[in-house]
Target: Protein kinase domain-containing protein
Amino acid sequence: MDPASSIFRLAALVWVVIFTCDNVAVRTVTFVTASALSPIQLEKKALINTGWWNSSFWTTDHCKWEGITCNSAGSIFELYLSGYYAGFNWRLSQLNFSCFPNLVKLTIQFFALTGSIPPEISALSKLQLLDLSSNGLTGTIPPEIGNLKNLIELNVGSNSLIGPIPSALGSLTNLSNLDLSSNKLSGKIPPEIAGMKNLTWLDLSNNNIKGSIPGEITELSRLDYLDLSSNKLSGQVPFSNEQLSSVYIVRLSPNKGLCGGNFLDLPSCDTTKPATLFVEIFLPLAIVLSVIVFACLLLAKRKYKKPKLEERATNNIDVFSIWNYDGRIVYEDLIEATEDFHIK
Ligand SMILES: *[C@@H]1O[C@H](CO)[C@@H](O)[C@H](O)[C@H]1NC(C)=O
Ligand SMILES: *[C@@H]1O[C@H](CO)[C@@H](O)[C@H](O)[C@H]1NC(C)=O
Ligand SMILES: *[C@@H]1O[C@H](CO)[C@@H](O)[C@H](O)[C@H]1NC(C)=O
Ligand SMILES: *[C@@H]1O[C@H](CO)[C@@H](O)[C@H](O)[C@H]1NC(C)=O
Model:
C-alpha cells in the first residue's frame, strides 16, 4: 500500500466521522427545538384537541381514558369510541392522524360523526382495523385508504358516503373483511377488487352500484360471504354456484337486472336460446294457427250444410280479422258462433 493512498483513506475516514457527528447533532437540535412535547405527550394533546373527552380528565393519564388502550411503551394502540360518547356534529378531522404512529385499531361507531373521511387518515400506517360504521359520514371514500397496507378489516357501512368504490382499495392485499354496505355509493364494482387476495367477507349491499359484476371477483378464492343485494346491478352473474363453491353465503337479490349463474333466486339469462324460443314463441303460434285452421274447416262445413246462416256466420267470425285476435278470443268467438247455430 503506497503512502499517498493511506493518507487519502485517513482523510476520508476523518471526513465521514465529522459528517456523521454533525448530522446527529443537527437531528438532536431539531428534535429539541421543534417539539418540546414527546411523541406520547403529542398523542395526549391530539386527544384533548378533539374535544371528545371531558376536560375533567385532562390532568389524568390518557391511557386510562375511556376507549383508549396504550401499548407497553405508553403509545396509543387502540381507540374505541361507540354509542354513548356521542356529541353533536363531531368530525373525524378533529383527530390529528399524524400524531398516532402506533395506532393499530380505530373504531368510532354510532358516534354521530359528520363530514367526510379525511385523506390524511392514510398517516395511520400501522392500522389493521378501521371501523367507522353507523355514523353520518358524507363525501367519497378517499383512495388514500388504499395506502393502509396493513388493514385487515375495513368497515364504513351505514353512513351516507357517495361516489365510486376507489380502485385503489385493490392494493389492500391483507384485507379480510370489507363492509361498504348501506351507503349511497354509485358507479361500478372496480375489477381491481380482485387484488384483495385475503378477502373472506365482502358486503356492498344497499347502495346504488350499477353495471355488471366483474368476472375478476371469481379470483377471490377465500371469500365465504358475498352480499351484493339491493343495488342496481345488471347483466349475467360471472360465476355459478359451483365456481364459487367456497362461498357459504351469497346474496344477490334484489337488484336491477341480474340473471344466470344457477342461483336459485335469479332468472336465467338465456331467453334467446332455441329451447326457450320454441316454448315461448313457436308453440303458442302453432296452437293459434291450429285453432284458426280448425275454425275455418268448421265454418266451411257449417256453411255447406246450412247456407241460410251464411250471412250471420261471416258477421260473427270474419276470417281475415281473426289475425288481430289472440287464440283465446278466437276460440271464444267460435264457441259463441257455434252455440248460436244450435239455438237457431
Ligand atoms: C364533565 O365532567 C364534569 C365533572 O365530572 C361533569 O359535571 C360534566 O357534566 C361533564 N361534562 C360532560 C359533557 O360530560
Ligand atoms: C397535527 O400534528 C402535527 C404534529 O404535531 C402538526 O405538525 C400539525 O400541524 C397538526 N395538524 C393539525 C391540522 O393540527
Ligand atoms: C400483511 O400481513 C402480513 C402478516 O400479518 C405482514 O407480514 C405484512 O407486513 C402485512 N402487510 C403487507 C403489505 O403485506
Ligand atoms: C394473507 O394471505 C397470505 C397468503 O395467502 C397469508 O400468508 C397471510 O397470513 C394473510 N394475511 C392475513 C392478515 O391473513
